[in-house]
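Bug: token stream looks shifted between consecutive jobs. Job 1:
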Amino acid sequence: MFRIAICDDMEDQLRSVHASVDRFFLGKGIFSVEVKGYNSPELFLRDLDGNGGWDIVLLDICMPGMLGIDVARIIRERSSRTEIIFLSVSKDFAIDAFSINAVHYLLKPYSTDEFDEAMNRALEPFSAKGETKMMIQMENGAIRSIDIADIIFIESVGYRRVVHAKDGIYEETKNPLSKMLAELEILSPGQFIVPYRGYIVNLDEVRTITNNRIEMQDGTGILIKRGDFRRLRDTLFRWAFRNR
């Protein structure tokens, strides 16, 4: 899922930017997009650490209490990967904006073409990296964003789904395994398979496959169904050949 935040203290501007984002992604069926608006920098920052981070943030510059430039600096302290688009009625902050590595500086009022150019620039790094993210809801209610390339495997343990990723282990408390598999299939068709009941594995993370088990790159061994070796082996070969 692609995650976008908008921060503008003017409610009409907040709605307008939200509508522009919705229009931009309309018809781009490859994207699963979450858009959230904030009418104050304080609310945005309060939510910044607990929501798994944002891919793109559209920031008004002149807001009461805190300038968008200062909000952007805090974002940069947390993440170098978030793409920032500034919105302003003045060019006065342009130099500061680009010193923070903002991807674009939109002057209000902006045209549809200007907005689309800014969004396309913001999307370029993600397209180049081939990053695709899914969201997991953790036990404490926090939302975490995980690049699916970092997922090694997912297992169902009782009523929990345990995501084994390269940077740690996380428990998903909301979605059943079948729904997670369906979302992964939309994000990257064919990359994730079910070798045995209660498991989803990332084919990019398979080290070896034998008659009765799959060994993952982290050393975990996962059983496979009796008689399923050839089918799984062929699936792995086709995936590896397609992505060579």
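Job 2, same session, no restart:
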Amino acid sequence: MPLRPGRSYRNYNGPAFTRLEYMNVKPKSKLMKVTMGNPNRDYDYRVKLVAKEQLQIRHNALEAARMAANRYLTTKASKESFYLVMKTIPHQILRENPILNTTHADRWQEGMRKAFGKNIGLAARVKPGSVVMEAMIKEDALPIAKEALRRAASKLPKKYKIVIEKMNGQQKNENKS
């Protein structure tokens, strides 16, 4: 059965479902790395991708955004000139009740009886104002980092803004994406 579209899981209104004792197997996360680049360097700026709305981000969307940002940063700047950190980690378990769409499916399927659903993936719950990912970078590569996070935001659902801060904590400017 193919993966349902992201709009099926983008919004949420119930409590988090992370209890492992109620399920047989926890799905594996597709998010491979959380940190990329060189963490041991002094950087001038911190560029953050901040969520504007409450949403759920599936683990495959987080991995696509991470790969897009990392690829752009490594091609335009070297691996030693940035440090990219994923701040949002998926823990919410997504379930779906598979429905048969074949001839005589009504004889095999139980319908809504025992409709708890199977585990199909993981998602991260994000609140407005929370940081999804951030990049630390030198001043000369600041436009590269902004473009990398803009490309990462295009892989994620809903809207985000890019916030640029100096590493001493003073906020420099804010860029809407």
